Amino acid sequence: MTRLRRLLLSAPAVLVSMSAVISASPACAQGRAADRSSMPALGIKTAMSFPPFNEWKAAVLSGNEGALMKLYSTNPPVQVLIGKDVITDPAEEAQFWSGFGHSGLINFNPKILAISHPQSDTTELVLRVEAKIRQAGASKDAGTAGIQDMVASVGQLWKQESDGWRIVSTQRGNFVVNAPFRLPQPAKPDTQLYPKPADAQKDLDTALMAAKIHHKRVLVVFGANWCYDCHVLNSTFTSLEFAPLVKANYVVVHVNIGDEGKDNLDLGKRLGVGLERGIPSLAVLDPDGKVVYAQRNGEFESARKIGPTDVRDFLERWKPNTSRSSGS
After folding, report:
1. Whole-number Å distance between alpha carbons of 316 and 243
2. Residues 1-36: tens digit of each pLDDT
């Protein structure tokens, strides 16, 4: 994820606000990072177990405009932000999504990247919505010909009303061609991958202690739950191909830069990481805390631009006993 851009959606009648970055590029969408320690007891153990979201997904898949309408607030009307335009007509948003079900939709895969609860009766989701659509006139017998793989970033703010959950604010970017990744993608991103920003120094200290005991190095990964590239990099590190190499040589610690990208910037600066160039961004430390290497130019910020060879070269180069000096 490169430059951060903050857009604000307000739902004044429910006294909550939703902040999310829905950029022209769907690589990373900024939303409020999940604070698991302060989550209210809503019976939501994982992002994908949030029943209203599953209802919304099913309604989109079936193209059921009526079912979608029931999931958007009408009093007050849902606020929809598309680019710089604000729309307050629930019917228009329901028509947009129901149109997917009638437009050659082959596959619809909305992935929840981050989930949080601003208040006890609200739930905020940051989504990466992937869809495969058969173009008009394309034959079903033509295989993949005429099928477009599309993606968009979406934010949703849900509120529990007297008769059920409804979307009170939503934000979406334009659907664009989903460029392929060479790295493995997560089927279900871990919405708790990055812990609370305030835990960063404690987690780093713990990692340094573990690295000293096990004769490893610390791999510090700056990122956020709302960043899809961060999830892709983590899927790579934990894949069958790379997990043995990572486990044998590194203690991995994830440092959360927060919902606005403003947290732990001091730690990044101290380690020499160029967070202004985007996330994920990495640093490698010796057990004594000495910086062996720090990414300064956003080398891994776009998961589409790197492949398995790039990741393996990085891990091999900076593992214990084989790394070159800092800055080389």
Report:
1. 13
2. 433 233 333 333 332 333 433 443 344 533 333 333
Would you state the torsion angle of the CA atoms of residues 32, 37, 43, 49, taken in this order, to the nearest 10 degrees? 50
Residue 107 has pLDDT above 60, yes or no: yes
Residue 141: in which H helix or E strand, if any? Answer: none
pTM equals 0.82
Residue 280's closest CA among 259, 255, 245?
Answer: 255
Question: What's the CA gap between 301 and 281, in Å, rounded?
Answer: 6
The residue extents of the domains of the chain are 7-177, 197-318
Element (H, E) at 157: strand 147-161
User: What is the tens place of the pLDDT at every residue in 119-173?
Assistant: 999 999 999 999 998 876 555 555 566 789 999 999 999 999 999 999 999 999 9
CA distance 239 to 249: 15
The architecture (CATH level 2) of 7-177 comes to Roll (3.10)
Q: What is the largest CA-CA distance in the chain?
A: 64
- Please name the fold of domain 197-318: Glutaredoxin (3.40.30)
* Per-residue CA distances from 61 to 100, 102, 105, 107, 240 (Å): 7, 9, 8, 8, 33
CA dihedral 29, 31, 33, 38 (to 10 degrees): -160
Higher per-residue pLDDT: 253 or 103? 253
Looking at the chain, the whole-number percentage of residues with pLDDT higher than 70 is: 80
Write out the DSSP string of 103-126: TTEEEEEEEEEEEE-SSTTEEEEE
